[in-house]
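Researcher: Please predict.
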Amino acid sequence: MDKFSAMQAFVRVVEAGTFSKAAESMAMPKPTITRLIQTLEKELDTKLLNRTTRKVTVTADGAAYYERASQLLSEMDELEASMSRAKASPRGRLKVDIPASLGLAVIIPALPDFYARYPDIQLELGVTDRPIDILAENVDCVIRGGDLVDQSMVARRLGEFYLMTCASPAYLARHGTPQHPRELAESHRMIRYMSPRNGKLYPMVLHKDGETIEVEGYHLLAVNDSNAGVTAGLAGLGVLHTVTFLVQHHISNGTLEPLFPGWCSEAKPIYLVYPPNRHLSNKVRVFVDWIVELFARHELIQQMCSLPKAEPATTPSAAEQAQTAKTVKRPAAAPAASPVRSSVAA
């Protein structure tokens, strides 16, 4: 018996919850997984798993074996990585899951730099806002925004993100430009965000000079994806409340107009999360370091309430004024609370 393969198969079945999912994640036939574990149970002379038609549960002996086996496999991975570190650059498959908005606007455009440094790492990038079971889906790490849901995972804070309120010029021409957040609930349509986890609609929460406003607002459209919300905002379907880094260039080129200058929200954190019982392999470690560096230099991840504003000019000429009008970015409005986990300050 290949005890190492059997141990790997057993750990994957426990983490995935079913033989089918374990076989899929290991790219092995299900009968092979079954045979390996049956052979392992015979070798150990104990039952490790209770099998039913719907699920697999771990016996008391199986739970104890899993703890030690998963630790040994992690240490083996770390040992192999440390031995190869001095000989070659990190290599192998790396499975990461990231939010769609961060992936499309920040991470994926920067990947050429990552591959220039680490050409032998094969990234399998899940781009989704759905909840991820890291162990069951055999994911090395995930990046998530907002408050942490699973406190059992190890989390490294990468930065912060902010939201802002804006609308298209066409929408504002039809419905007028609101001067205060309260007006949104009175006479405007909003593009609402709902949780990918449970479909809950998130309110917009804004703060200014000790005042806190929470707006639900009337809506004809609700989406569970930030990029879909931006597309809807550009189409003039309502007032948009979304992450700053998704709308920067739309604000700059005038296809979206910022609303409510001076209104802010608390920063929402961005975390990289991985399982606590796994040592970080070299390939995961370099990816984490690269992500930390990327976010640290990305101005809209660390941005406070407003987008950068132009420096005041001193008595410009007519030509300089014309040139400035072409190049200076429009000032942005205050972002609002995260659609991930909104809260009202006391």
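Model: The first strand starts at residue 49 and ends at 51.
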